[in-house]
Amino acid sequence: MPKELLNKQDIDRVLARMAHEILERNKGTGNLCLVGIQRGGVHLAKRLSKKIKEIEGKDILVGSLDIAFYRDDLNIRKEQPTVRKTEVPCEITDQKVVLVDDVLFTGRSIRAALDALMDFGRPACIQLAVLIDRGHRQLPIKADFVGKNIPTAINENVEVNLEEEGLEDKVTIE
Amino acid sequence: MKLASKDLLGIKELTKDEITLVLDTASGFKDVLKRDIKKVPALRGKTAVNLFFEPSTRTKTSFELAEKRLSLDVLNLAVTTSSVVKGESLIDTALNVQALGADFMIIRHSSSGAAHLLSKNVNASVINAGDGVNEHPTQALLDAFTIKEKLGRIEGLKVAIVGDILHSRVAKSNIYLLTKFGVEVRIIGPPTLIPQELESHGVKVFHDMETGLRDVEVVMMLRIQMERQGKGFFPSTLEYFRYWGLTAERLSIADKDAIVMHPGPMNRGIEIASEIADGPRSVILEQVTNGIAVRMAVLYLLAGVRG
Predict the structure, then answer these.
(1) Cβ contact B100:B49 at 8 Å
(2) Does B32 sit within 8 Å of A70, measured CB to CB?
(3) Cβ of A142: how many Cβ atoms within 10 Å?
(4) Per-residue pLDDT tens over the stretch B166-176
(5) How confident is residue B83, by pLDDT bands cut at 50, 70 and 90?
(6) B294 Rama sector, left if φ>0, alpha if ψ -120 to 50, beta otherwise
(7) Do the chains contact at A80 and B45, CB–CB below 8 Å?
(8) Which stretches does DSSP call E strand in chain A?
(9) Model confidence over B274-289: pLDDT tens digits?
(10) A116 by DSSP, 3-state: which?
(11) Chain B CB contacts of A82 below 8 Å
(12) CA-CA to A103 of 20 to 30 Å: which in A131, B11, B40, B125?
């Protein structure tokens, strides 16, 4: 039976805090854009942009990134990952890009996302925002903005369910 | 979802779901082709060998670009300078290419079934780039991709395929594909260039453009294969154009938004008027661009089957 870690209200509060932190660190929305990693990260990036708009009254560009072609496990997977849309909303060269993902685990997806992003230009900086950091990094990667740190065993499964996928908002562990 | 076979030998062997998977994946690659850096590292470290035993410009360069944009290492075997002219058999050539470390073999050959023969004898993924008068599957896939991109769907359309059906592997692959999607396929051409048993494949045969083109949403013109025209299939190219050439007047019989396709190379003034080939309804050059995205998708998905 999966155990609930965050409910709908928790997720909303966490995102509100992260939006404040992103604005604080970057001193507002100037030259700032959000890029979500398909699929969960894209929904979260859109929610963060809405929060930022509520706080700052400014629109911020949101993009999506598919990392299928950049994964390091294409040779060992049984099936190729489904290819989803990549839409980088603006010229990212000299922009501050906040990469958004749902769960930070081994860090390999983020490595792939960094490579994918670099093929679009040379950002001024890339920051990382994740809803859940569950530990067990295999690469030297660290998030700048973390919704919640959750200590896990390596074989446990963390699920982020979102309304945008037709599910009830919650984070569970099993 | 993944493809069932390590090889792409023909459309005949694919299911509708597999075709849809290729087309969906290809739209991801089409995005890649619009970027400044048109290359992704997906198949880094793997090797593709292009075995072209028949002349080809479009298909060969398209495959080569698709391979390079997936970061594959590419080897082109120029057949006229290889051991094939010394009498080495197709299988021996392939086994040697495999021993060099090929993961993909892309083959074009004048004999129908050449790709099938190869696939039974090598572990590499074999992609049929045209075998005799049998099939040219990646052409049909890029045609389907272009239709879907332009018209938003494939199901339920009316598509006319016009010209030399008898010698056309492009027509055959397209007929297999379109009928799997429930398309009304109309074949138009002189009786001498249409195989007899064709209607049993679920297509309608017409011998004049005026009735065949009525209300179709896609007009697919085929190349008159001049190299095979010594046998008197029609009196002259002038005569052919008069009856089966695509002119503005004939195109007006089709749906008002109908698109015009041609797999190339075109014979202007024989099967198609220049004003149509270069006109606003023509998607002929977009087919060429889409060919790269579709071939990238095929290579990417086949790599997943081999694991």
Answers:
(1) yes
(2) no
(3) 12
(4) 999 999 999 99
(5) low
(6) alpha
(7) no
(8) 3-6, 32-37, 61-65, 96-104, 125-133, 145-149, 158-161, 170-173
(9) 999 999 999 999 999 9
(10) helix
(11) 1, 25
(12) B40
Of residues A75, A80, A86, nearest to B2 (C-beta)? A80
Q: What's the predicted TM-score (pTM) here?
A: 0.90
* CATH number attached to the domain at A3-71+82-173: 3.40.50.2020
Domain boundaries, chain B: 16-135+288-306, 137-283
Can you tell me the distance from the alpha carbon of B4 to that of B22, in angstroms, rounded to the nearest whole number? Answer: 12
Q: Write down the ipTM of this complex.
A: 0.80
Nearest CA in chain A to B69: A69
Question: Cβ contact (<8 Å) for B40 and A119?
Answer: yes
User: pLDDT tens across A94-138, in order?
Assistant: 999 999 999 999 999 999 999 999 999 999 999 999 999 999 999
Provide the mean pLDDT of chain A.
94
Question: Quick check: A153 pLDDT over 70?
Answer: yes
* Inter-chain residue contact A80 with B35, CB threshold 8 Å: no
Supply B182's token pair.
């429930």
Would the CB atoms of B40 and A66 count as touching at under 8 Å?
A: no
Shortest alpha-carbon distance between residue B40 and chain A (Å)? 6
Q: Write down the CATH number for the domain with range B137-283.
A: 3.40.50.1370
For B87-100, the pLDDT digits (tens) are: 678 888 899 999 99
Residue B160, pLDDT above cutoff 60: yes
Which residues in chain A are contacts of B25 at CB distance < 8 A? 80, 82-83
CATH topology of domain B16-135+288-306: Rossmann fold (3.40.50)
